[in-house]
Amino acid sequence: MKQRIVVLGGGFAGVYVARELEHLAGGRDDLHITLVSQENYFVFQPMLPEVISGTIGLVDVVSPLRRLLPHTDIHVREVEAIDVGRRVVITSPGFRPHAHEIPYDHLVVALGAVTDFRGMRGLPEHAFPFKNLGDALSLRNHIIRSLEEAAVEDDDAELRQQLLTFVVAGGGFSGVEVAAELNDFVRRVARNYRSVDPNEIRVMLLHSQERILPEMPEDLARFAEKILTRRGVEIRLNTRLSAATGVEAILGDGTRIPTRTLVSTVPAFAHPLLESLPLPKAKNGRLEVTRELNVKESDHVWSLGDCAMVPAAEGGFAPPTAQHAIREAAVVAHNIVTSIRGGKRRTFDFRGLGKMGSLGHRSAVAEIFGIKISGFLAWWMWRTIYLMKMPGWGRRLKVAVSWTLDLFLPPELVQLRVGSSRGIGREHFEPGQEVFREGDLGDRVYIIVKGEAEVLKAAQPVARLRAGECFGEMALLNETRRNATVRCAAAMDALSLPKSEFTLLSANLPELRSSFQKMADARNENSVLASKES
Ligand SMILES: Cc1cc2nc3c(=O)[nH]c(=O)nc-3n(C[C@H](O)[C@H](O)[C@H](O)COP(=O)(O)OP(=O)(O)OC[C@H]3O[C@@H](n4cnc5c(N)ncnc54)[C@H](O)[C@@H]3O)c2cc1C
Q1: Over the stretch 1-12, which tens digit does the pLDDT of each residue have?
Q2: Which of 97, 173, 191, 497 is 20 to 30 A from residue 504's alpha carbon, by CA?
Q3: Does ligand 1 come within 6 angstroms of the Cβ of 37?
């Protein structure tokens, strides 16, 4: 009977396990491989930062799973639960509102890690994560939009400063690469904005330790610092990001950096699905595996990549990198096949080939087999090695062509507007921050979830609003401008509903409209009385 092997995750770990299994199947009919992933493509993450600058096209960094894995059943759904007792994986509903169950004999958990800003004031609402293709696209669009806005807002110095300041938090590999690409991009395209002076642009890299790239030898990290600084990146060491609002990044020492673009590459967390699994986990929530990569105390559940604590040959644990995930995948596939067909199991003995980080603009740092390289040669090696590692000749060719064209052509500046509205969102405000000003156009309604706001008319406080109360409705109901200023009084989280959605809801729910109208009338009456009394 065929053994059902279900691989969860379509990243480096999952794809390379399935690939290796296809290879080991060798035409025999005893393995049935299924790969479950929430996207139908594989993302080549090391090149993701280049999407920001448009050096390579958006879809050049992804490959369709069905082409990569022609002998695997691809199941594009979100994994909702894993029932280890019944040996089934439950996936989310699709167009039809019912769940799917996929039975397995061997399960490979390769769900990676997640970006989690929970507990970090204002970051879930205002910081851009940088992990997948969607993150890269929305960041790129946001950067272009900020430049466009700066070109329009030429009379508001404060707003221009926010729009033209770009802050990246986290000086590890991905933070450094994001800062480098972002910096190159905004400075290269600035010349297309006649009213933007390149000297107004600030790109900052915040790092909590005393040097960036802690994974690299100190001299290479210092070299990277020098190169980035020379190109205009302001590096702040020993600096921790503590909170954020829509208009500023707040540092641990209380310093406020006005910005509308904050990218955070904080360390990733264990995948939340692992939490509920009755399997051994390390303190950081990752699955504990043996050196043969089966999950401890289980002979049919395997794990690898960023979601597992993989013991390293030299002691400690393997770092969460693509090069390790690929080698772990070969071990997992081999050991699954030997546990089905018999044979000797392998242990994970890979020690790492080295580390490389691109600094953009034809410069990089690398340590390969203990040899340190920096500058153009490291950059050339970075490109050659990663190009050869990309799965599929078609993608390699496209990337090579994009890189070549980038040498001669100006960077792509098109802002792709996907989706017309953000819908209901969450926003965080710090004390003293204005939510809107008297005379502004009414663009949204706010509902306070936590914290307090004060309402001011002619600079005098007239009311205080607390959790559960809403504000901003008057201008929307009466199609007028804001008749008061609202300012945050105590750190506040609020839901914000854009005008278009509010109008749609109130037009279709007469009760909602009338209760908002009553509230607006009562507020109007109170303010008339208050002004008579004074
Ligand atoms: C910007 C960036 C740059 C990097 N650069 C390098 C580099 O230069 N060199 C290097 O070695 N490493 C690099 N890394 C790290 C490397 O990419 C990761 O270590 C590697 O991707 C881990 O592979 P993984 O398969 O474990 O996780 P991931 O690649 O994160 O894959 C997880 C997969 O699981 C899927 N998934 C998650 N949840 C669900 C769910 N509920 N249902 C269904 N599917 C789900 C995801 O969609 C994804 O396909 C970089 C990472 C980033 C973010």
Answers
A1: 899 999 999 999
A2: 97
A3: yes
